[in-house]
Design brief:
Layout lengths: L14 H24 L3 E4 L4 H13 L3 E6 L6 H14 L4 E3 L3 H11 L8 H19 L5 E3 L16 E4 L4 E4 L7 H11 L49
Parallel strand pairs: 1-2, 1-4, 2-3, 4-6
Antiparallel strand pairs: 5-6
Helix pairs in contact: 1-2, 1-6, 2-6, 4-5
Length: 242
């Protein structure tokens, strides 16, 4: 007897979303221009997700003075890392990479084990702190504002996401210019502009993080179901945006 494999998530198509793009793009462009004008040193934290490619496209097209960086955690999929070269080829810009401290990683592994992040939320968050949060602090050390690609629709922890907020941890303004965008609108823009995107999307990964903490999801599942899937819905954040 042949077992049918469950259908995996695929990037959504919505013709109506394409019709909304002109207004959405104009609004996004205006927001990014205003952010660049209001601050001396703005940085955009790109996770290399499709949302981040949308923002990168506007930054590059408008030649905005916004520095793009990413957190290379040392545990990313090869498909994700290949986007660094794709961005250079597509837009002619280089994404700055911030990496975790190797001594901290080695100490974590020596103390808890290489896969300790599966054992508890506390140990997983400690790993995230080493690989993401501490490098983010270094990345933002010279900035007076930063931009993210977060959206309200992405998870239960982001439903009240503001377009602009004050980051109390880093003492600076923080902007989420895609907060109101829908997933269908993001993908409509990516297709229309033929943006480089992570190959893992076509393999059923709607939300992509570190390789051992991300897996594909079934069609109809929450788009964050594949992130830290062994934890409860309420804990599925790494702490970058806490």
């Amino acid at each position: 007897m042949t077992m049918l494999r469950p259908r995996l998530w695929t990037p959504p198509h919505d013709a109506a979303a394409t019709g909304r793009l002109p207004a959405l793009t104009t609004e996004l462009t205006t927001r990014l221009q205003q952010i660049a004008q209001q601050h001396h040193h703005v940085k955009f934290a790109s996770s290399l997700a499709v949302e981040d490619m949308v923002i990168t496209d506007v930054i590059a097209r408008e030649q905005l003075p916004i520095e793009v960086f990413t957190l290379n955690t040392g545990a990313l999929n090869s498909e994700t890392l290949s986007l660094l070269g794709a961005v250079r080829q597509h837009w002619g810009i280089r994404i700055a990479e911030y990496r975790p401290d190797e001594h901290a990683i080695n100490a974590y592994i020596a103390t808890h084990g290489k896969l300790a992040f599966y054992d508890s939320v506390a140990l997983r968050r400690e790993c995230c702190h080493i690989r993401k949060i501490e490098p983010l602090g270094r990345a933002l050390s010279q900035a007076d504002a930063w931009i993210t690609g977060q959206r309200r629709e992405q998870s239960a922890t982001r439903t009240a996401l503001a377009l602009a907020e004050q980051d109390q941890v880093h003492g600076m303004a923080k902007y989420n210019p895609l907060a109101e965008w829908l997933e269908t609108e993001i993908w409509a823009y990516a297709r229309q502009q033929q943006l480089p995107v992570n190959a893992l999307y076509q393999q059923g990964y709607p939300s992509i993080g570190c390789e051992p903490c991300t897996r594909p999801v079934k069609a109809g599942e929450d788009i964050r179901a594949g992130r830290w899937w062994w934890e409860s819905q309420d804990s599925k954040e790494c702490g970058l945006h806490k």
